[in-house]
Amino acid sequence: MMVGFAVVTGWVIRSEEPDYWSFYLTGLLGYLTSLAELVSRYRDAPVVASVSLPGIAYLLVNIGAALAALHIVQRFGWDLGAGPDHEQFAQIFLAGFGATAVFRSSLLNITAGDHTVSVGPYAVLHVILTAADRAVDRERALARMRHVRRAMHGISFQHNADTMFTYTVATLQNPPPDEVARVSSKISSLRDAQNADIPDTAKSHILGFSLMALVGSKVLTQAAHHVRELRSVNSDPPGEATGGPEHRTIVLPDESAPTDDPATVVNNELRQTIEVVLAQQEPMLLRDLHRLTRAPLPDFTTLVSALVENETLTIEGAPGGERVSRTFRPPSASDIHPEPRSV
Fold it and tell me: Which residues cross the membrane (predicted)?
């Protein structure tokens, strides 16, 4: 496509015939108009859609329609009242931008039963453009399915839909309100009772399709990667349709038990380090605590989860900004008034 465009451009530049320039500029305007249509239809990957065979066919049909419109405009002498001095420019803009309206118009509509049949240029052009449009859509659908499957792997709709939606929209400086509302409506519909039988993985992929149309494939991949990292730090419960491997369970060691087992020694040391760091009774970021302990993330995550379940630690805050602190236990009556020991 680009090679042909370069050849035609060079040939027109060397030519001194004014009509060649008219048809060249008209075709260029028709090309830009149809390209804008493809970009608006396939916002997640407009370049891929434009260079695909169906996309090229779509562009060529629109260019041909613009050139045919210029021929008609010249034959009828339409100049929009521009006068002889500007007649050529008026016809170029009229045909280049008006071909979309002219060739999508109908002379009359005939109703046959429940169907309306259009009579005019639109009837023929609509069939060609619809076929090319659907071909582009089908070709992009295969690529979208492959990409969403990779990007959303390990993302649970039940547990991560709100995080994915909020995080992804937050990456945009000027998110379009109508598209954001459309994605939010899609999430609500997937949570509806009538869609309860849809598997969680399928819902996650459907969410990925909606988000990819909003932010593109690269942003979706990075957002899903970050959400998976946040989820691992936040320690989702194992085996709840996360799509990833279950977290290992670490049982808190009994302090009275022998400490010959190396794993028990490591767990005791890690637990003591956490208690020493949090001895100041001030909450700190969970990621800072992990950095100070220098422990492997799986061991740190599972031990912190066990400490939270054991009500030794308390975690508060949104994913990515969680703060951890030692759980406050009010002193009991025995601590305030200890029983006298018998001598």
Answer: 20-39, 51-73
